[in-house]
UniProtKB/TrEMBL annotation:
Record lineage: Bacteria, Pseudomonadati, Pseudomonadota, Gammaproteobacteria, Moraxellales
Cross-referenced Pfam families: Acyltransferase
EC number(s) recorded for this UniProt protein: 2.3.-.-
Gene behind the chain: yihG
Name recorded for this polypeptide: Putative acyltransferase YihG
Keyword annotations from UniProtKB, A to Z: Acyltransferase, Transferase
Organism of derivation: Acinetobacter stercoris
CDD domains (UniProt xref): LPLAT_LCLAT1-like
Keyword Transferase: yes
Length: 307
């Protein structure tokens, strides 16, 4: 290969990076100020129309990102599988669980969900409110923001536990005024081999799930949601860095969506105060995670067979 031929892929990557960076930056400066400006009006008067308009603006921003994926990353192949018994629509109310490997996971969720599901939110730390623009946007768009206290703080002041629960309930209940998708990464952090080994995880492809967040959301929203949805994301060529994705280094992404049936007992217990229920709920989540682990293995094997 000549030196000129070697330069072509590098120039192509640089051009792609500049294009993506310029378009996303421009789109953010175009869509961001209206969201923040409309959000300020909620300080004086709550308005469902303002909320709906902000969601439309946010979806417009996401549509620009998706356009880039479809037209600037043309070599990317998607393999999306949706269970037949899962009926998704933009007016639904969904809780979603997902495995977590990369910052790209959120982009995958946005790409998949834009035309199929309501805007996806997830629990965020209250401290993010102090990050300029980003924190305010999360608050305005209805992302549940929680002041989480440590076990040591709660031990010194037990009332903080009750306060945390009240804040979580209030944050979730605010979503009920509109369609929503509330995402929970049960692993709590991105999967790495080091974390997997440290945990001595019983799963091949996953870290141990933390059931508390899901139990909390189900306790507050469980009888009002249309479905508990489990999303599984597989990168057949390995979990990518965020920059790798936008530079076109990711060639294949597989996504599986399945509906999780909720046993009646799940919505009838108290995870925080009932040890027996808590143990049973954790066991149920562990079983779901074992099924998910097997699903990931089978999805990976499909691509190994193709190779």
């Amino acid at each position: 290969m000549s030196s000129e031929q070697k330069k072509q892929p590098i120039l192509k990557k640089i051009t792609r990076g500049l294009t993506v960076g310029s378009v996303i930056t421009g789109s953010t400066f175009f869509h961001g100020p209206p969201v923040l400006a409309l959000g300020l009006t909620k300080l004086f008067k709550k308005s469902r129309k303002v909320d709906e308009t902000n969601i439309q603006i946010t979806n417009s921003w996401l549509s620009v990102n998706n356009w880039l994926i479809d037209h600037v990353l043309p070599d990317l192949e998607w393999d999306i599988s949706i269970d037949d018994n899962l009926d998704l629509n933009l007016q639904g109310r969904y809780l979603m669980t997902c495995n977590h490997q990369s910052w790209v996971d959120t982009t995958v969720n946005q790409y998949f969900g834009l035309t199929r599901m309501p805007l996806t939110r997830f629990f965020t730390k209250w401290e993010l409110i102090f990050i300029p623009f980003v924190g305010q946007a999360f608050k305005i768009l209805g992302f549940p923001m929680m002041k989480r206290h440590t076990k040591e703080q709660i031990a010194k002041n037990p009332e903080l536990k009750t306060r945390d629960m009240m804040e979580a309930r209030k944050a979730c209940e605010q979503l009920l005024s509109q369609p929503f998708t509330l995402l929970n990464y049960l692993e709590g952090t991105r999967f790495t081999k080091e974390k997997h080994d440290q945990q001595k995880s019983p799963y091949v492809n996953l870290l141990k799930p933390k059931a508390g967040g899901l139990a909390l959301a189900l306790n507050i929203l469980g009888d009002k949601i249309d479905a508990l949805v489990d999303m599984t994301i597989v990168y057949p060529d390995g979990a990518p860095e965020y920059s790798d994705f936008w530079l076109g280094e990711v060639k294949r992404i597989a996504v599986n969506l399945r509906k999780i049936d909720l046993p009646e007992w799940v919505l009838a217990g108290n995870y925080e105060d009932d040890p027996e229920y808590r143990e049973r709920f954790q066991k149920w989540v562990d079983e779901l995670w074992a099924e998910k682990d097997q699903l990931i293995t089978s999805m990976k094997e499909k691509y190994q067979t193709e190779v």
